[in-house]
Design a protein that fits this description.
The complex is a heterodimer of chains A (about 350) and B (about 600). Chain A is α/β, with parallel strands linked by helices and about 350 residues long. Chain A contains 12 helices and 14 strands. In chain A, about 55% of the residues are buried. In chain B, about 40% of the residues lie in helices and about 15% in strands. Chains A and B meet through strand 2, helix 3, helix 5, helix 11 and helix 12 of A and strand 7, helix 7, helix 8, strand 9 and helix 9 of B.
Chain lengths: ~350, ~600
Amino acid sequence: MTSFVKPKIRRHNEPLNELGLARADYEGNMSTLCAGCGHDSVTAAMVRAFYELSIPPHRALKISGIGCSSKTTSYFMNDSHGANTVHGRMPSFATGALSANNDLPTIGISGDGDSLSIGLGQMAHAMRRNVNMLYMLENNGVYGLTKGQFSASADLGSLPKKGDPNEFSPIDPVAFALSVGATFIARSFSGDRQQLVSLIKAGLKHKGFAIIDVISPCVSFNDHKGSTKSYAHTYEFYSKAVHADYIAPSEEIVAAYDEGEVMPVELHDGGYIQLRKVDKDYDPTDRGAAFNRVMASDNANEILTGLLYIDKSQPDLHQTQNMEARPLNEIPYTELNPGADKLQALQAEFR
Amino acid sequence: MSGPGLNDFVIKIGTVNGTGSASANGLLMKSIFRMGIPVVGKNVFPSNIQGLPTWYEIRVSGDGHAGRSGEVHMMVAMNQATYDQDLAELATGGVLLYDSTWPRPHLENRPDVTVIGVPLMQMCNEVVKAARSRILMKNMAYVGAVAALVDIDLNVIRSLIEETFAAKAKLIESNMVAVKLGYDYVKEHYDSPLRFRVAPLDKTKGKVMIDGNTAASLGCVYAGATFGAWYPITPSTSLMDGFVKYCKRLRVDEETGKNKFCIIQAEDELAAAGLIIGAAWNGARAFTPTSGPGISLMSEWIGFAYYTEIPVVFFDIQRTGPSTGMPTRTQQCDIQTTAYASHGDTKHIVLYPSDPNECFDFAVRSFDLAERFQTPVFFLSDIDLGMNDWMVDELTWDDSYVPDRGKVLSKDDLDKMESFSRYLDVDGDHIPYRTLPGTDPKGAYFLRGSGHNAHARYTELGHEYQEVVDRLLAKWASAKTAVPAPVVQNAKSQTRYGMIAIGTSDAGATEARKRLEADGMPVDYMRIRAFPFTDEVEAFINDHEEVFVVEQNRDGQLHDLLLTETNVARERLTPVLHYSGEPLNYRFVYDELIKRIKLRKIA
């Protein structure tokens, strides 16, 4: 088997973005995932987000680890450099890549196995460093490629397709991210395209580490009765606590919003994200309150979605490293060579 | 055999770690170096911060031998816990210097050794008030006592102290007072200098005393490396310390104050490897310093970089294994690991520097080779080379150097091309072209550790897979014409014996060869400097009936690698193995070779 190249179908009068590119220009290879996989919806949302943000595909990076979700990096933006790396180690590769050139919008794609089991450490440290990337955690509670073992996000008591119920407490990526220090934390559902696209756009614009935990049901191994990550279960317990809409800076922000219901949050590039709150007192800039709200939803068996936390005040890795604006990979050697004289002089201490 | 005599003897200082003795020992060695006499320093220290025995060995070698001799002629015994061991280690005719504040009559048990007692602590207590300072001053007092015994110039000691404390002038006099305490006591109570002593020479001009890790870190700076990541591990840490220090000094923009480098302390070795591979994929010269345990952890990434053809440099500063082993003791135990690191069919380029000057040079070459061949390169050093000060020619730099960035396509290049295939052998040299992210849509490709074809597309087709891995093997083999060639020291007369060594086994091997020849046993010697082996290696082995492979590990890893990677007959190779964790000494090599040569003569 080789990878399938998806034919580009151009329609007449198809809408173009600011770069003159159509949405098809942001597509990739044919997906080889199972029909109905939540991940394919996430891929479609990413295509739309990049298209709507008019990001030149070749100026973006898409990086993943190993697993079903990680395979999706090749299903969108064929004109981007992509990397399907090592299981659980996408964050370190992405951090290194961004260090060499921080001008490239970077999306990391991972799953619950890749992020919460083998890769928990790397994900945590990318958060701590506030690496300027969007981290998509496509969360279905199972290992799909190895045929249905539970992952660390499987809920207590959740039933597998075969075998015994899960007896270990789940790791909630949102609660985890809140405690570790991520500066943009959201949750969404693969079936909610509109919310997902808004959050992806906002996450890409956020200067720092943005994570979106996307509940993305596995149709083959985790969509049966008794599974808490199935389509049916998610629809039933879905709670849009906070609704987010990204508005580009060029657009006038006229959306009349009721005090206490909609809260605009300015992003680093001047764009806005609008949060439509169900809960009047919800403040996405208060880490403690966010934590309480997430816990309360968990206790109520609700899947709280939307932008749950944002902190725009933290410097990203590039800033804490005090690096110059120009990408490292563009600094000419003449500026890197200290010169023969300096080498001679600095050896005084060794004589 | 060697010494003791004029400018030819070994001083060993036994202390307790965490007592500040390192600077006193460094002062002693540097003083001798400043007197123009070649000197070798070996630090043997515990994996501990405070309270355990530690030793420093200074070999004075007017002839310029670079390794250990295997004997001790003066023991400066400052650790009561190791008195017996230290006394036992002294060669006949040796001298034991100890702190007689607490007399130890039993030290007189060896009639073939002279015991010199100096009441160091007592004298320091009388002069110095603060308790902490007393311990430090006691160190300076033994420096003075040794100086008197072996005739080290006090003016040289003084000028070194002045340089060290240039910013704290008060400390210059207090340190000199302590030095004089020891010096004067010896002059008053003992006949000095001893039979073995120093006398000024002119053999250290143009030389520096530098450790391999510092030299390698300078190599990274001069090679234009901009990205380093690491997880702290002895004995590689000082390499990154050096890179941090020199980047801060040499790589910060004077006007903006901004860095032209990025250094990340990773959460573990796996992350360190991922970080540098990501940075290198995106066009930065990137490296990580580590040691054997780190290489084990990085192995999955190493295979990824090998298969996806990403140029990165791994500095493996070896320490005694297996497992945690003896983390502060030396060995050459990662020869096999680095040659083939990672699962699946993988083969790497490995460089074997043998002194700090070569560490500097090979660090630069590592980056050039990595980018030329688009593959991980291993720089294989060890704790002896990395952390001890070696006397070498001053490091020099040619400002006309241009980094070999290999076959990287620019936007202009891509514009002229119909299409781009990442893993296609366009030029017939087994090396494909690569592109950096962000250059041009035409240059985009998908990097994957899974099966891929010449066009960087996923494949499970056998012939497509084989095309890529066959090219990788051919590419690796072709590197043998680009890596540093072996260095040969031939005997003056024809001989059927040869000797092969790498890295820090060189100093002992070189000295043993010279002494064997002087004693009528000529041996040719080849120092291999890189893997894959060049053609000269096989020819050298076939030119000799018996070739001794001198290395510092239990299993004969270099020996086995030679058997695997050349077509020589097993019978020609004889392993000579030293793996106690102490740096190799020439006497061991000499004795082993004599034994085997005599055996052969009898047979």
